[in-house]
Prior knowledge:
alpha/beta, Rossmann fold, seven-stranded mixed β-sheet, three-stranded antiparallel β-sheet, 12 strands, 34% helix, globular, disordered N terminus
Amino acid sequence: MKIYNVLIALCICTFFSFVSSDSPEALKDLVTDLPGQSHVSFKHYAGYVPVNKTNGRAMFYWFFEATSLPNQKPLVLWLNGGPGCSSVGYGATQEIGPFLVDNKGTSLTFNPYAWNHEANMLFLESPVGVGFSYSNTTSDYKKIGDDFTARDAYAFIQKWLERFPAYRENDFYMAGESYAGKYIPELAEFIYDKNNDNSSLHIKLKGILVPRMMGGYDPCLDDYTRVFYNRADVQKALHASDGIHLKNWTICNGDTDGRVPVLATRYCINKLELPIKTSWRAWYHEKQVSGWLQEYEGLTFTTFKGAGHDVPSFKPSESLAFFSAFLKGVPPPLSL
């Protein structure tokens, strides 16, 4: 009888510790009735986090728990570039999220190569003016630059971790593409400086991943995504609007991003004069050459064979395998 009592007590304690990981604010952001979503075992949340109450600036996010062991797996912030393109519209629903918009913009398909198999994925629409993120002060939009964007993104992370305290001790990574290659290093430096001056909540930053893309993409996907996120029932389910007074969601707001050729990127990296650990060579996935890489001290430059501008859209299995290796701190397979 005593053994059973102990087991029951342990089960009750485990249950309440799991529930208490969600603050009251987080529970309000829980997504429960997203149109077109299939049944999944993980939870996801969406909503606004205020970053400047004086000016009325708030940033929109969509967060997907890892499919297993979310309390143990890393937390990864994903940013798209542009500048001015939506991480929800591109990263979450065209590339690496668990739900991809179908080719009519009317429903969702399950993505078997979603990155939340390996980590907790946090998609942020940044800076304000992108996607659902906004400011109530018009002059803010004239101030937007890389430093402004980094400061708001840092404020978002701080506020988000207050809303989701269970993830404060998780290892933290940042990943993104295109102009996020500028956003992410600047934000990483800002986090590093703030961690050192102990002026705010410590963020356990472990690494950054910035794919450098080239090639084309399917513009029709943008149209399907635009249709989906401007639906009243979708905006209401994601807590982006009340479903009556709708937001005008656009996938990009600003200049289009430039193409970044491999040779130019290699040239720029060579200018850093970093010590080379592994010379330029092929890497493999499922017994096929998936691209080439060169490891430097503190940096790895990798290409994806046959990938277009958005690597996960063109090479979903390979990108997930590479992401998994990155989180483990090891290179992808360098031989068959």
